[in-house]
Amino acid sequence: MILSLAYKKNKVALLCIGIVALTAIIFENYNALIYGISKGLTTTIVIVMAAMNSSSLLNKYIVVGLLFCLFGDLLLLNKDYFVFGLISFFLAHTLFLIGLFRNYNSKQKLWIYFIFWSLGAIIFYGLYPDLNEFFYPVMAYVFIISSMNAQSAIGYFQNKDNKSRLLFAGALFFMLSDTVLAYSKFVHNYEFSSILILSTYWIAISLIGHSNSYLNQPHDDQF
């Protein structure tokens, strides 16, 4: 009954996230105030959804990591604070990584790290000619998000339950969003890149936040 109630609450929260996120996307280029409020509110609802189910250590790391995502969202509203936003998201991924590592601490399948570090190196290789003073901050950021993706993949292949599946999918969407953001900022800003960045980012944190509804156990077949 408790789990069923949590799923129902999450469905309502996910619907609200979708509505507010769509509002932010629509008003991004038309009303800065509505956009800023909607952007912050979307991530806030994700945090509330995750915090309703923060019984385990991993879940607590996720909630605090999402708080740093909110700080990053607000900082990135001002282009002059890009570095501070980058630091905030770096700390968010660090917390996600620590939580994942403590929950899925396995020495098996460490080759997965090599795959994601290689993917991160490819992404960074496409960026580095245009990074200038952002060379080292972006390199550190690519490393941490690649590591977080690798650890979430290890968790998924170790357990293959709904929680690890959502975390892995969320990590992948996060990496996609940040890759598009980096290329649009440093290489070329495509017309619809912002829509892709925002939509994949909110899908990412919604999946990560929704994962808190599931217990940290290897065989959780509910969805």
3D structure, described in words:
- This protein has one domain.
- The chain contains 8 helices and no strands.
- It has helices at 2-27, 32-51, 57-75, 82-103, 111-127, 135-159, 162-186, 193-210.
- Helix 1 packs antiparallel against helix 2.
Helix and strand arrangement:
Elements: H1 2-27, H2 32-51, H3 57-75, H4 82-103, H5 111-127, H6 135-159, H7 162-186, H8 193-210
Helix pairs in contact: 1-2, 1-8, 2-3, 2-8, 3-4, 4-6, 5-6, 6-7, 7-8
Which keywords apply here?
mainly alpha; 0% strand; disordered C terminus
Oligomer: single chain
Count the strands?
A: 0
- Could you report the average pLDDT, rounded to the nearest whole number? 89
* Structural classification: mainly alpha
Major sheet: none
Helices, by number, come to 8
Low-confidence stretches: 218-223
Beta-strand content estimate: under 5%
Number of domains: 1
**Helix and strand element order:** HHHHHHHH
| Helix proportion | over 70%
**Could you say which overall geometry the principal axes of the C-alpha atoms support?**
globular
Separation of the first and last Cα atoms: 14 Å
Rg (CA only): 17 Å
Gist?
By secondary structure, the chain is mostly helical.
